[in-house]
Amino acid sequence: MPIGDAVNPNLACVTTFMCHPDEEEALQRGLEGANFFGYSLAHYYVFGRHQPGITDVWAEYQNQRGEQGFDPSAVHAAAANSDRLGAKVVQDGLGGLRGAVGTPDQVREFLLRYEECGVDQVIFVSQSGKNQHEHIMESLELFGREVLPEFLERDEKAQKDKAQRLAPVVEQVIARKPADDHPPLPTDDYAFPAIPRAIADRSGSDDFHKFLDQVAEDTAAGDNSVITNALR
């Protein structure tokens, strides 16, 4: 039964990403950050013990990534014997993440398998670890030029076909929702304040309200000096 009054039947997946015309260069640029991303998630949600301000997750990753299954060297080794990308790679007892790290042709083939399985959206992660901004931008530009256009061409029709195909299912799902189980509609006078306004309301501070009024006026006039001075 849907929580709200609408059904979102879309499916999104997350994968690591780095695209370059040369496969080895893509691996060099993307694998360490990709595996740090996976290790970090596992650290916080599976096996880690974290002391805020003390635990160095990057240092732990460098020391433990092999035993925890996030070793870039396993992906490098497997790349010599595989012509298609895999989300997870296991080689000689070591595991590592690869995902969409490779050439445009490899990334295209990888994403086609997601498309064939009915995945609506793929979320790329390429900003983890010590990945360089310039490499990330080059990767995105290359992907946008050589891979993305063909998927965009198919997307509009795919979305229409899916909506038509699922319309009876969505109707049945909505019908299961009790008539009295709907989010209440706001009244005509419904409003909520911005967070600073709410703080000013709770504190009863007229001076704070006057400050916020001044900030609004100055910002509208293109003057951000009040905010800048307040942050110093």
Sequence-ordered SSE layout with sheet pairings:
Blueprint: E1 12-19, H1 23-47, H2 57-68, H3 72-79, E2 88-91, E3 94-97, E4 100-102, H4 104-116, E5 121-125, H5 133-146, H6 148-175, H7 195-203, H8 206-220, H9 225-231
Parallel strand pairs: 1-4, 1-5
Antiparallel strand pairs: 2-3
Helix pairs in contact: 1-2, 7-8
Radius of gyration: 25 Å
Judged by helices, strands and strand pairing, the structural class is mainly alpha
Q: Order of strands in the sheet with the most strands?
A: 4-1-5
Order of helices and strands: EHHHEEEHEHHHHH
Number of beta strands: 5
Span from first to last CA?
50 Å
Any idea how many domains?
2
Strand content: 5-15%
Structure in words:
This protein has 232 residues and is mainly alpha-helical. It contains nine helices and five strands, in the order βαααβββαβααααα. A hairpin with a 2-residue loop joins strand 2 and strand 3 (94-97). Helix 1 (23-47) crosses helix 2 (57-68) and helix 7 (195-203) packs antiparallel against helix 8. 21% of the residues are buried. The mean pLDDT is 90.
